[in-house]
Amino acid sequence: MPRGIPNAKRDESALRYTSFHVPLAPNPKHVGSTYLKAESQTLWARNANRAHRARLDEAGAATPTETRRGAKVVVIHLGSRFLRIGRASDVTPLTIPNVIARKQTSAVPPQTYVEGISRPREERKRSTPSTTAPSGDEYAVTIASDDPFDAKVAAITVSLRDRMRFYKLRVTTNAASIATTFNAQFKPEIIPEINDPYRVDWISSSEEPYLVGDAALRLANPEEMGYAVRWPIYGGNFNTRDYPSTQLVLSDIEVILRESLKLKEIEPNAYKDHSVVLVIPDYYDRAYVEALVRILLVDIGFKQESLAATYGAGISNACVVDMGAVKTSIACVDDGLVIADTRMVLTMGGNDITEFLYVMLEKIGFPYRDLSLARSYDWNVIEDLKARLCTLAEGDVALNLYDFFVRRPGHSTEKYGLRAYDEIILAPMCLFEPRVIEFEQKRAGMRFLMRAPDMAEEILEQSADKYLERYTQAMMISTQHLFPVLPPITLDQAPPIVTPAVQTPATTEGQSLAVTPQPATGQATPTPEEHSQTANGSKTDPDGDVEMNDAESTEKDENNERDENGKENEGDNVNGDDAKEKEKESEPKVKEEPESADKPMDTDEKEKDKEKSVTADAANVEVIDVDQLDDKVIAPPPSAAHVPPPPVPVAVPLSAFNIDVSFEASKLPLDVAIFNSARAAGGDEKIRKYLQAVLVIGGSALVPGMAHALESRLQAIATPLVPNMEKVQIIPPPKDVDPRVLAWKGAAVLGKMDGVADLWVSKADWELFGMRALKERCFYL
């Protein structure tokens, strides 16, 4: 820098040896041209005008037509059981079963049903109730046998009797034997076809290459006719269990969408004039979204596409609980946007209620004895009973008489009678007591999707820890009790990768990871048989039921409050600063090797060294900082040759544990999962905010008494844990709106808004950017 110029700036333009200078950008205010002064001068507007003129040249002349707003926008909601599709201007969507029957050239295997509910032993399947009538207290429950299934049902019955005792409702003690006697002796009534207004026109012969929706379910005998009946969507993802390849799943989804659009009178030549809004789960798979967008934009050929979450429903802040057929999604919505850390997915839904109802009815002698859940018409029988019988209101429990109809191909319609007691409320209670659900069997045979490598994928921002990127905070809160306590390891052992099983938590006293609430020193880690600590402060056993006895002590443990003597709880985290200071104060210092071996040591230094060695030998609790192992040479005490090296606490990353957090979190009861989702949103104020606005949608929300059942259970959890907690409120769906189509209507509202014009992704954008176009355009991802 030359002297005399104190504020001279260094030339970083690499043009210091030339007289050339970069001119400044012109000020548009002083320019006489209209370039870039209006929106019509932008590149987007020019491309739109060019496309409009091209369409005018093809049509010859413009024919202005008045259409309803949203008439050119198609909204698609793919569910596990039903597909809802329609224009954004429609009041209600078209709802059809999301199933397809394809003609096969080879032999078709018989249809099978994957059991997701526990089953009793063979000798106790029919006409053997799980509980017996007590002799004294009418609210007492006595297990009928040593069958594990009877023990699970008895535990749910205990919860029901406790609620009936609280509401002072009488119990019919011998109801099970009365119902069993009636059902075993009942003979069906034959109804002539002419007197059955709801008779089904079964398809006994067909040469069509495929059948979609209701037509696929009306096949008289699919196996003999050579049709394979499959459901391509399962639990918010592709059904990889029933398909040999992912390409077959995508092909079936495309066929179902095309046939559904025909029912809405949208022909293939009009696809290019329509935009599409796709409703995706809040906790989605990237490969699932990528494949569906490619089908809509490339294979089918819509003009542009957008993604939507659970939006609308008349409110902007709520804890949305979407209860579908296979899964239940929970997420807190703030100002119309989903809070990512509050997302949770429970692997249970309406199908589990249907299956559990059948198992319970079979225990009391269900009169229709040839029922098989693998057949569509038999499944519809139990679905109809679930819609008419099931309730969560304890006051509706009574020994009543019900009737139902069985319509089978090749048979006349049969009318049956049925008596049931508490089976109608025990079936939907499996959502709050998921001990009877077999989660491992439900996901058996499912494969992970393999995504093709994409050039644009490298540009996407990826978290450094894939483990934390995949799981939400609500899931981590729900499963923190599964992470075991790590015992210290010695220096002669290499730090192994700890992969403990979920069912075998460590029983060593000590400190745990930062994610795990820690018991006090001297208290053993609970075993799986004992109640393990959950995130909501309550106790949860392996089957998932909740006790609220130790809520106050749990809250103290989580907040690291002072105990009665004014001392800190000793269950701090391994990585905490307080724990390190305590170790430095209480443990002996690590002896370093002298700088020079030839340098003699003073007498005082030798005596001090002997004292240190004796102290370390007696205590044998020498702690070494792992971060300083490279800088220090560890010398064991000379008198402790027979003693093993001192233990070293090693911090193991979360990804080293062999625990599927999302799968383990999916086993939680519904009320506990909702509370954990609200807890992941923030502090006590956030919890109160979202628990006072819980919106329940989906098919299972139609169960009578669902709102009161959720309110009472959430109130029992939140009151001792959240200060100043007021009444929990379940918001009913808007008036005259089916809760099953509420997510679709929210997406339809989103598709008609002018403020979301920047969310549309065209085919050119998709071919150029791929998944990056969705990430840049859609603020939902």
Short description, anyone?
The protein is an alpha+beta fold. It has 23 helices and 25 strands. The strands form seven sheets. Strands 3-2-1-10-11-25 form a six-stranded mixed sheet, with helices on both faces. Strands 12, 13, 14, 15, 23 and 24 form a six-stranded mixed sheet that branches. A three-stranded antiparallel sheet has the order 8-4-9.
Report on this structure:
- The chain is an alpha+beta fold and 781 residues long.
- It is 30% helix and 12% strand.
- Strand 13 (328-334) and strand 14 (337-338) form a beta hairpin.
- It contains 23 helices and 25 strands.
- It has a domain at 123-198 and 349-442: ATPase, substrate binding domain, subdomain 4 (Actin, Chain A, domain 4, Alpha-Beta Complex).
- The strands form seven sheets. A six-stranded mixed sheet has the order 3-2-1-10-11-25, with helices on both faces.
- It starts with 42 loop residues before the first helix and ends with a helix.
- Residues 61-65, 309-313, 451-468, 490-603 and 610-651 have low confidence and may be disordered.
Compute the average pLDDT: 74
**Classification by helices and strands:** alpha+beta
Q: How would you sum up the global shape? A: globular
Number of separate strands: 25
| Percent range of helical residues | 25-40%
Uncertain segments of ≥5 residues (pLDDT<50)?
61-65, 309-313, 451-468, 490-603, 610-651
Intertermini distance:
51 Å
Tally of alpha and pi helices: 23
Biggest beta sheet summary: 6 strands, mixed
| CATH first level of the domain at 123-198 and 349-442 | Alpha Beta
Question: What would you report as the Rg, rounded to the nearest angstrom?
Answer: 33 Å
